[in-house]
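Weekly structure sync, notes
Attendees: PL, DS, HV (note-taker this week)

Item 1: Kinesin-like protein
DS walked through the input record. Source organism listed as Haematococcus lacustris. Sequence as pasted into the shared doc:
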Amino acid sequence: MEGELAGPHRGIIPRTVEDIFTYIVNDPEPTRWRLQGSAAAASSRDAGNTAVRQRGSGAGDWQGPGYDYLQIYNEVISDLLKPERTNLAIREDRRRGVFVEGLSEWVVRSPAEVYQLMERGQALRTTGATKLNEVSSRSHAVCIVIVEKCTAGLEGGGAAGWPRAPAAGKDAGASHSIKVGKLNLVDLAGSERVHVTGAVGKRLEESKRINASLSALGNVISALTDRRGERAHIPYRDSKLTRILEDSLGGNCRTTMICTIAPSLEAYQESLSSLKFANRAKSIKNEAHVNEDVDQRTLLRNSNVAMSTTWHNSHAHACCAAGVVWWWTRYERELRKLRAELQRRSKELVDKRALLEVEEQKRRAEADKLAALTALEKRSREFMQEKEEKRALEARISAMQARQEVPAVAAC
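Item 1 (cont.): predicted structure, written out as C-alpha coordinates:
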Protein backbone atom coordinates (compact mmCIF):
# COMPACT_ATOMS: atom_id res chain seq x y z
CA MET A 1 0.00 0.00 0.00
CA GLU A 2 2.78 2.47 0.90
CA GLY A 3 5.80 1.31 -1.11
CA GLU A 4 8.31 4.08 -1.68
CA LEU A 5 7.21 7.68 -1.21
CA ALA A 6 9.02 8.82 -4.38
CA GLY A 7 10.14 7.27 -7.65
CA PRO A 8 8.59 4.60 -9.87
CA HIS A 9 7.99 2.21 -6.96
CA ARG A 10 5.54 4.46 -5.14
CA GLY A 11 2.67 2.62 -3.47
CA ILE A 12 -1.08 3.04 -3.87
CA ILE A 13 -1.44 5.61 -1.07
CA PRO A 14 1.29 8.03 -2.32
CA ARG A 15 -0.04 7.87 -5.89
CA THR A 16 -3.61 8.46 -4.70
CA VAL A 17 -2.62 11.45 -2.56
CA GLU A 18 -0.67 12.99 -5.44
CA ASP A 19 -3.66 12.60 -7.78
CA ILE A 20 -5.99 14.27 -5.27
CA PHE A 21 -3.78 17.36 -4.86
CA THR A 22 -3.09 17.53 -8.61
CA TYR A 23 -6.83 17.55 -9.31
CA ILE A 24 -7.43 20.26 -6.70
CA VAL A 25 -4.70 22.50 -8.11
CA ASN A 26 -5.78 22.02 -11.75
CA ASP A 27 -9.56 22.12 -11.22
CA PRO A 28 -10.92 24.36 -14.03
CA GLU A 29 -14.29 24.96 -12.36
CA PRO A 30 -14.94 28.13 -10.31
CA THR A 31 -14.97 26.18 -7.06
CA ARG A 32 -13.52 26.46 -3.58
CA TRP A 33 -11.96 23.44 -1.93
CA ARG A 34 -12.19 23.19 1.81
CA LEU A 35 -12.51 20.64 4.56
CA GLN A 36 -14.21 20.43 7.90
CA GLY A 37 -10.92 21.11 9.65
CA SER A 38 -8.70 23.67 11.31
CA ALA A 39 -7.13 26.46 9.28
CA ALA A 40 -3.60 25.00 9.36
CA ALA A 41 -2.23 21.52 9.41
CA ALA A 42 -0.99 20.30 12.78
CA SER A 43 -2.48 23.29 14.64
CA SER A 44 -3.15 22.60 18.30
CA ARG A 45 -6.84 22.45 19.19
CA ASP A 46 -6.71 19.96 22.00
CA ALA A 47 -4.10 18.70 24.44
CA GLY A 48 -1.78 17.38 21.70
CA ASN A 49 -0.84 18.48 18.21
CA THR A 50 -4.10 17.20 16.74
CA ALA A 51 -5.86 19.38 14.18
CA VAL A 52 -9.46 18.61 15.13
CA ARG A 53 -11.69 19.11 12.11
CA GLN A 54 -14.36 21.77 12.25
CA ARG A 55 -15.87 24.05 9.59
CA GLY A 56 -13.57 26.94 8.63
CA SER A 57 -14.41 30.53 9.50
CA GLY A 58 -14.27 31.83 5.91
CA ALA A 59 -16.17 30.32 2.97
CA GLY A 60 -13.21 31.02 0.70
CA ASP A 61 -10.53 29.52 2.98
CA TRP A 62 -8.94 26.51 1.32
CA GLN A 63 -8.01 24.18 4.11
CA GLY A 64 -6.90 21.05 2.27
CA PRO A 65 -8.08 17.46 2.51
CA GLY A 66 -8.56 15.76 5.86
CA TYR A 67 -6.55 12.70 6.88
CA ASP A 68 -7.25 10.00 9.50
CA TYR A 69 -5.25 6.84 10.26
CA LEU A 70 -6.45 3.93 12.43
CA GLN A 71 -5.72 0.27 13.05
CA ILE A 72 -7.88 -2.67 14.14
CA TYR A 73 -5.83 -4.94 16.41
CA ASN A 74 -7.56 -7.86 18.14
CA GLU A 75 -10.94 -6.20 17.37
CA VAL A 76 -9.83 -3.01 19.17
CA ILE A 77 -9.76 0.26 17.19
CA SER A 78 -6.79 2.54 17.91
CA ASP A 79 -5.76 5.94 16.56
CA LEU A 80 -2.32 5.63 14.93
CA LEU A 81 -1.81 9.41 15.01
CA LYS A 82 -2.88 9.82 18.66
CA PRO A 83 -1.74 6.54 20.29
CA GLU A 84 -3.34 7.41 23.62
CA ARG A 85 -6.75 7.15 21.93
CA THR A 86 -7.59 3.45 21.93
CA ASN A 87 -10.63 1.19 22.21
CA LEU A 88 -12.60 3.68 20.09
CA ALA A 89 -16.29 3.06 19.40
CA ILE A 90 -18.09 2.96 16.05
CA ARG A 91 -21.13 5.23 15.74
CA GLU A 92 -23.65 6.01 13.03
CA ASP A 93 -25.96 8.93 12.29
CA ARG A 94 -27.85 10.24 9.28
CA ARG A 95 -25.44 13.06 8.54
CA ARG A 96 -22.06 11.31 8.83
CA GLY A 97 -23.06 7.70 8.29
CA VAL A 98 -20.72 5.18 9.94
CA PHE A 99 -17.76 6.82 11.73
CA VAL A 100 -15.25 6.16 14.53
CA GLU A 101 -15.96 8.32 17.56
CA GLY A 102 -12.93 10.10 19.01
CA LEU A 103 -10.67 9.51 16.00
CA SER A 104 -8.28 12.44 15.52
CA GLU A 105 -8.75 14.29 12.24
CA TRP A 106 -5.89 16.14 10.56
CA VAL A 107 -5.88 18.78 7.84
CA VAL A 108 -3.14 18.45 5.22
CA ARG A 109 -2.07 20.96 2.57
CA SER A 110 0.43 18.93 0.54
CA PRO A 111 1.45 15.32 -0.15
CA ALA A 112 4.52 15.84 2.05
CA GLU A 113 2.31 16.43 5.10
CA VAL A 114 0.41 13.23 4.32
CA TYR A 115 3.68 11.28 4.09
CA GLN A 116 4.76 12.62 7.49
CA LEU A 117 1.54 11.38 9.06
CA MET A 118 1.86 8.05 7.23
CA GLU A 119 5.36 7.45 8.62
CA ARG A 120 4.22 8.45 12.08
CA GLY A 121 1.30 6.01 11.95
CA GLN A 122 3.34 3.19 10.40
CA ALA A 123 5.84 3.40 13.27
CA LEU A 124 3.01 2.75 15.73
CA ARG A 125 1.32 -0.03 13.80
CA THR A 126 1.42 -3.43 15.51
CA THR A 127 3.78 -5.97 13.88
CA GLY A 128 5.31 -9.26 14.98
CA ALA A 129 7.65 -12.03 13.85
CA THR A 130 6.41 -15.35 12.41
CA LYS A 131 8.14 -18.15 10.53
CA LEU A 132 7.16 -16.49 7.24
CA ASN A 133 7.77 -12.82 8.02
CA GLU A 134 9.84 -11.05 10.67
CA VAL A 135 7.67 -7.91 10.51
CA SER A 136 4.26 -9.45 9.84
CA SER A 137 1.30 -7.06 10.14
CA ARG A 138 -0.82 -8.07 13.10
CA SER A 139 -3.59 -5.55 12.46
CA HIS A 140 -5.75 -4.09 9.71
CA ALA A 141 -4.93 -0.44 8.90
CA VAL A 142 -7.33 2.12 7.40
CA CYS A 143 -6.26 5.50 5.94
CA ILE A 144 -9.19 7.90 5.52
CA VAL A 145 -9.00 10.94 3.21
CA ILE A 146 -11.92 13.41 3.14
CA VAL A 147 -12.28 16.19 0.54
CA GLU A 148 -14.98 18.88 0.44
CA LYS A 149 -15.82 20.86 -2.70
CA CYS A 150 -17.93 24.05 -2.62
CA THR A 151 -19.57 25.32 -5.82
CA ALA A 152 -21.93 28.24 -6.50
CA GLY A 153 -25.45 27.76 -7.91
CA LEU A 154 -28.80 29.47 -8.43
CA GLU A 155 -31.15 29.98 -5.55
CA GLY A 156 -34.51 28.22 -5.65
CA GLY A 157 -37.84 29.75 -4.76
CA GLY A 158 -40.08 29.53 -7.81
CA ALA A 159 -43.43 27.80 -8.02
CA ALA A 160 -43.45 24.06 -7.38
CA GLY A 161 -39.72 24.15 -6.59
CA TRP A 162 -38.67 25.73 -9.90
CA PRO A 163 -35.83 28.27 -9.99
CA ARG A 164 -36.95 31.81 -9.26
CA ALA A 165 -37.60 33.97 -12.33
CA PRO A 166 -34.88 36.63 -12.69
CA ALA A 167 -35.97 40.04 -11.51
CA ALA A 168 -35.53 43.08 -13.76
CA GLY A 169 -32.08 44.60 -13.53
CA LYS A 170 -30.58 41.97 -11.16
CA ASP A 171 -29.45 38.35 -11.17
CA ALA A 172 -30.97 35.55 -9.20
CA GLY A 173 -29.64 35.05 -5.67
CA ALA A 174 -26.61 32.83 -5.27
CA SER A 175 -26.33 29.75 -3.06
CA HIS A 176 -23.65 27.15 -2.42
CA SER A 177 -23.53 23.45 -3.15
CA ILE A 178 -21.14 21.36 -1.06
CA LYS A 179 -19.95 17.91 -2.13
CA VAL A 180 -18.01 15.71 0.27
CA GLY A 181 -15.88 12.78 -0.87
CA LYS A 182 -14.49 10.10 1.44
CA LEU A 183 -11.72 7.68 0.46
CA ASN A 184 -10.93 4.59 2.55
CA LEU A 185 -7.54 3.00 1.85
CA VAL A 186 -7.42 -0.36 3.66
CA ASP A 187 -4.36 -2.55 4.25
CA LEU A 188 -5.66 -5.95 5.36
CA ALA A 189 -3.55 -8.37 7.37
CA GLY A 190 -3.27 -11.63 5.43
CA SER A 191 -5.03 -14.83 6.46
CA GLU A 192 -2.76 -17.23 8.34
CA ARG A 193 -2.48 -21.00 8.70
CA VAL A 194 -1.15 -21.72 12.17
CA HIS A 195 0.80 -24.84 11.18
CA VAL A 196 2.64 -22.78 8.55
CA THR A 197 3.36 -19.59 10.54
CA GLY A 198 4.13 -21.46 13.77
CA ALA A 199 2.07 -18.99 15.80
CA VAL A 200 1.82 -19.71 19.53
CA GLY A 201 0.72 -17.74 22.56
CA LYS A 202 0.10 -14.08 21.73
CA ARG A 203 0.73 -14.62 18.02
CA LEU A 204 -1.83 -17.44 17.98
CA GLU A 205 -4.49 -15.17 19.50
CA GLU A 206 -3.66 -12.49 16.91
CA SER A 207 -3.99 -15.03 14.11
CA LYS A 208 -7.41 -16.09 15.38
CA ARG A 209 -8.62 -12.48 15.40
CA ILE A 210 -7.21 -11.79 11.92
CA ASN A 211 -8.80 -14.90 10.42
CA ALA A 212 -12.12 -14.19 12.18
CA SER A 213 -12.33 -10.65 10.75
CA LEU A 214 -11.39 -11.86 7.26
CA SER A 215 -14.01 -14.59 7.55
CA ALA A 216 -16.59 -11.94 8.51
CA LEU A 217 -15.53 -9.92 5.45
CA GLY A 218 -16.04 -13.00 3.28
CA ASN A 219 -19.49 -13.58 4.80
CA VAL A 220 -20.50 -9.99 4.03
CA ILE A 221 -19.34 -10.30 0.42
CA SER A 222 -21.20 -13.61 0.05
CA ALA A 223 -24.37 -12.05 1.49
CA LEU A 224 -24.07 -9.06 -0.87
CA THR A 225 -23.70 -11.29 -3.93
CA ASP A 226 -26.41 -13.78 -2.91
CA ARG A 227 -29.00 -11.45 -1.38
CA ARG A 228 -32.57 -11.59 -2.60
CA GLY A 229 -34.36 -8.26 -2.33
CA GLU A 230 -33.38 -5.00 -0.66
CA ARG A 231 -34.25 -6.17 2.87
CA ALA A 232 -31.85 -9.12 2.92
CA HIS A 233 -29.69 -9.18 6.07
CA ILE A 234 -26.01 -8.29 5.57
CA PRO A 235 -23.84 -9.17 8.64
CA TYR A 236 -21.83 -5.92 8.78
CA ARG A 237 -21.84 -5.92 12.60
CA ASP A 238 -20.02 -9.26 12.95
CA SER A 239 -16.65 -7.49 12.82
CA LYS A 240 -15.20 -4.02 13.44
CA LEU A 241 -13.60 -4.18 9.98
CA THR A 242 -16.84 -4.84 8.09
CA ARG A 243 -18.69 -2.26 10.20
CA ILE A 244 -16.21 0.50 9.29
CA LEU A 245 -16.26 -0.53 5.62
CA GLU A 246 -20.06 -0.81 5.41
CA ASP A 247 -20.37 2.14 3.01
CA SER A 248 -17.41 0.93 0.92
CA LEU A 249 -18.78 -2.59 0.47
CA GLY A 250 -22.43 -2.09 -0.37
CA GLY A 251 -23.21 1.60 -0.40
CA ASN A 252 -23.03 4.63 -2.64
CA CYS A 253 -19.39 4.28 -3.63
CA ARG A 254 -16.81 2.78 -5.96
CA THR A 255 -14.67 -0.01 -4.51
CA THR A 256 -11.41 -1.54 -5.76
CA MET A 257 -10.04 -4.71 -4.15
CA ILE A 258 -6.57 -6.17 -4.82
CA CYS A 259 -5.92 -9.85 -3.95
CA THR A 260 -2.36 -11.19 -3.98
CA ILE A 261 -1.29 -14.80 -4.56
CA ALA A 262 2.03 -16.66 -4.38
CA PRO A 263 3.48 -18.63 -7.36
CA SER A 264 4.44 -21.68 -5.28
CA LEU A 265 2.93 -25.13 -4.82
CA GLU A 266 2.98 -24.78 -1.03
CA ALA A 267 0.62 -21.80 -1.27
CA TYR A 268 -1.76 -23.57 -3.66
CA GLN A 269 -4.71 -23.71 -1.25
CA GLU A 270 -4.29 -20.07 -0.13
CA SER A 271 -4.03 -18.88 -3.74
CA LEU A 272 -7.14 -20.81 -4.75
CA SER A 273 -9.08 -19.39 -1.77
CA SER A 274 -7.96 -15.86 -2.70
CA LEU A 275 -9.14 -16.33 -6.29
CA LYS A 276 -12.53 -17.61 -5.12
CA PHE A 277 -12.80 -14.65 -2.73
CA ALA A 278 -11.99 -12.20 -5.54
CA ASN A 279 -14.48 -13.93 -7.83
CA ARG A 280 -17.25 -13.33 -5.29
CA ALA A 281 -16.16 -9.77 -4.53
CA LYS A 282 -16.27 -8.64 -8.17
CA SER A 283 -19.94 -9.65 -8.37
CA ILE A 284 -20.96 -6.86 -5.97
CA LYS A 285 -22.68 -4.01 -7.77
CA ASN A 286 -22.49 -0.58 -6.13
CA GLU A 287 -24.43 2.46 -7.35
CA ALA A 288 -22.13 5.48 -7.12
CA HIS A 289 -24.88 8.06 -7.63
CA VAL A 290 -28.15 9.20 -6.12
CA ASN A 291 -30.65 6.40 -6.60
CA GLU A 292 -33.82 7.53 -8.37
CA ASP A 293 -36.62 5.36 -9.70
CA VAL A 294 -39.53 7.18 -11.40
CA ASP A 295 -42.16 5.22 -13.32
CA GLN A 296 -44.27 6.52 -16.23
CA ARG A 297 -47.32 7.20 -14.07
CA THR A 298 -45.30 9.43 -11.75
CA LEU A 299 -43.83 11.30 -14.72
CA LEU A 300 -47.32 11.96 -16.10
CA ARG A 301 -48.52 13.14 -12.70
CA ASN A 302 -45.55 15.50 -12.40
CA SER A 303 -46.30 16.77 -15.90
CA ASN A 304 -49.90 17.57 -14.96
CA VAL A 305 -48.79 19.31 -11.76
CA ALA A 306 -46.23 21.38 -13.67
CA MET A 307 -48.81 22.33 -16.32
CA SER A 308 -51.36 23.33 -13.68
CA THR A 309 -48.81 25.37 -11.72
CA THR A 310 -47.62 27.10 -14.87
CA TRP A 311 -51.18 27.95 -15.90
CA HIS A 312 -51.99 29.49 -12.51
CA ASN A 313 -48.81 31.52 -12.53
CA SER A 314 -49.53 32.67 -16.08
CA HIS A 315 -53.07 33.66 -15.10
CA ALA A 316 -51.75 35.67 -12.17
CA HIS A 317 -49.47 37.60 -14.53
CA ALA A 318 -52.09 38.07 -17.27
CA CYS A 319 -52.12 41.80 -16.67
CA CYS A 320 -48.55 41.97 -17.84
CA ALA A 321 -47.99 40.85 -21.43
CA ALA A 322 -44.27 40.30 -20.83
CA GLY A 323 -45.04 38.10 -17.82
CA VAL A 324 -47.51 35.99 -19.80
CA VAL A 325 -45.02 35.46 -22.61
CA TRP A 326 -42.26 34.53 -20.15
CA TRP A 327 -44.35 31.96 -18.30
CA TRP A 328 -45.81 30.51 -21.48
CA THR A 329 -42.34 30.03 -22.95
CA ARG A 330 -41.21 28.37 -19.76
CA TYR A 331 -44.27 26.13 -19.75
CA GLU A 332 -43.54 24.90 -23.29
CA ARG A 333 -39.88 24.30 -22.47
CA GLU A 334 -40.67 22.29 -19.34
CA LEU A 335 -43.38 20.34 -21.17
CA ARG A 336 -40.89 19.37 -23.88
CA LYS A 337 -38.44 18.23 -21.21
CA LEU A 338 -41.07 16.07 -19.53
CA ARG A 339 -42.12 14.51 -22.83
CA ALA A 340 -38.49 13.76 -23.69
CA GLU A 341 -38.00 12.23 -20.24
CA LEU A 342 -41.09 10.08 -20.73
CA GLN A 343 -39.76 8.81 -24.06
CA ARG A 344 -36.37 8.08 -22.50
CA ARG A 345 -37.97 6.12 -19.65
CA SER A 346 -40.00 4.10 -22.13
CA LYS A 347 -36.82 3.21 -24.01
CA GLU A 348 -35.10 2.25 -20.74
CA LEU A 349 -37.84 -0.27 -20.01
CA VAL A 350 -36.97 -2.06 -23.25
CA ASP A 351 -33.23 -1.81 -22.55
CA LYS A 352 -33.67 -3.20 -19.03
CA ARG A 353 -35.29 -6.36 -20.38
CA ALA A 354 -32.29 -6.94 -22.64
CA LEU A 355 -29.96 -6.16 -19.73
CA LEU A 356 -31.69 -8.76 -17.56
CA GLU A 357 -31.10 -11.38 -20.23
CA VAL A 358 -27.41 -10.45 -20.42
CA GLU A 359 -27.12 -10.61 -16.61
CA GLU A 360 -28.69 -14.08 -16.61
CA GLN A 361 -26.20 -15.29 -19.21
CA LYS A 362 -23.38 -13.78 -17.18
CA ARG A 363 -24.62 -15.49 -14.02
CA ARG A 364 -24.66 -18.85 -15.79
CA ALA A 365 -21.14 -18.28 -17.10
CA GLU A 366 -19.95 -17.46 -13.57
CA ALA A 367 -21.56 -20.66 -12.28
CA ASP A 368 -19.83 -22.68 -15.00
CA LYS A 369 -16.51 -21.06 -14.14
CA LEU A 370 -16.93 -21.83 -10.44
CA ALA A 371 -17.77 -25.45 -11.31
CA ALA A 372 -14.62 -25.64 -13.42
CA LEU A 373 -12.54 -24.29 -10.53
CA THR A 374 -14.06 -26.90 -8.22
CA ALA A 375 -13.33 -29.68 -10.71
CA LEU A 376 -9.76 -28.42 -11.08
CA GLU A 377 -9.30 -28.44 -7.34
CA LYS A 378 -10.63 -32.02 -7.12
CA ARG A 379 -8.39 -33.19 -9.96
CA SER A 380 -5.37 -31.56 -8.31
CA ARG A 381 -6.06 -33.41 -5.07
CA GLU A 382 -6.39 -36.69 -7.00
CA PHE A 383 -3.14 -36.00 -8.79
CA MET A 384 -1.29 -35.34 -5.54
CA GLN A 385 -2.76 -38.54 -4.04
CA GLU A 386 -1.68 -40.59 -7.08
CA LYS A 387 1.76 -39.05 -6.83
CA GLU A 388 2.06 -40.11 -3.18
CA GLU A 389 0.85 -43.63 -3.98
CA LYS A 390 3.38 -43.91 -6.81
CA ARG A 391 6.15 -42.74 -4.51
CA ALA A 392 5.16 -45.35 -1.88
CA LEU A 393 5.03 -48.11 -4.53
CA GLU A 394 8.49 -47.20 -5.82
CA ALA A 395 9.81 -47.36 -2.28
CA ARG A 396 8.35 -50.84 -1.81
CA ILE A 397 9.86 -52.05 -5.10
CA SER A 398 13.26 -50.71 -4.10
CA ALA A 399 13.00 -52.47 -0.73
CA MET A 400 12.06 -55.78 -2.37
CA GLN A 401 14.95 -55.52 -4.83
CA ALA A 402 17.32 -54.85 -1.96
CA ARG A 403 16.11 -57.94 -0.10
CA GLN A 404 16.64 -60.10 -3.21
CA GLU A 405 20.20 -58.90 -3.69
CA VAL A 406 21.30 -59.70 -0.11
CA PRO A 407 20.85 -63.56 -0.35
CA ALA A 408 22.62 -63.57 -3.72
CA VAL A 409 25.68 -61.95 -2.19
CA ALA A 410 25.63 -64.41 0.72
CA ALA A 411 25.55 -67.37 -1.65
CA CYS A 412 28.68 -66.16 -3.40
